[in-house]
Amino acid sequence: MSERKPAGMSDESWVEQRIGEAVDRGDFEGLPGTGRPLPQGEADEDWWVRGYLRREDVSTDLSLPAPLVLRREADDIDHTVGRLLDEAAVRRVVGELNQRVEESWRRPADHGPVARRVDAEEVVARWRENRTEPAPVPVTAPRTSWWRRFRPRLKRSTTPSA
């Protein structure tokens, strides 16, 4: 457990003292990256965060305010429902989006304009218009179990048993 800062010492000098003690003990020896230069940052102060998000392949939508995320989802709704197979699923996705939009209206608006609702009928009409019929599923013969394929065939006797 770390020791407490003495009452008469400033925070900065106490921290510097603790770092000096750690250097004397060798706590900073052999750390990964020792001797390599620090990466050069871009002009803005968030260069490291941007690089981290890029390296880890994290969506930047996580850092957006909720109304902007909802507006982006509303703009991309045709792409989202384009791969759905039936109208009920399209209506369900639109209903869930509209429910989240209405919930965002109940929260105080801290971040500019609020998101808009999506008209389910318009989305369904565009979905029908852009929809391609799915390819028919080929009908195959029922598979037999592996046991039936590999067990020896037993011959039935033609003579009645006595």
| Gyration radius from CA atoms, angstroms | 33 Å
Mean pLDDT: 78
Which geometry do the CA atoms define?
elongated
Outline the low-pLDDT stretches.
none
**Percent range for helical residues?**
40-55%
Order of helices and strands: HHHHHHH
Explain this structure to me?
This protein is an all-alpha fold. 47% of the residues lie in helices and 0% in strands. The protein is built from seven helices and no strands. The chain has helices at residues 11-25, 47-56, 66-75, 77-81, 87-106, 120-130, 146-150. Helix 3 packs antiparallel against helix 5 (87-106) and helix 5 packs antiparallel against helix 6 (120-130). The relative contact order is 0.08. Residues 14-80 form the DnaJ homologue subfamily C member 28 conserved domain. This is DUF1992 domain-containing protein.
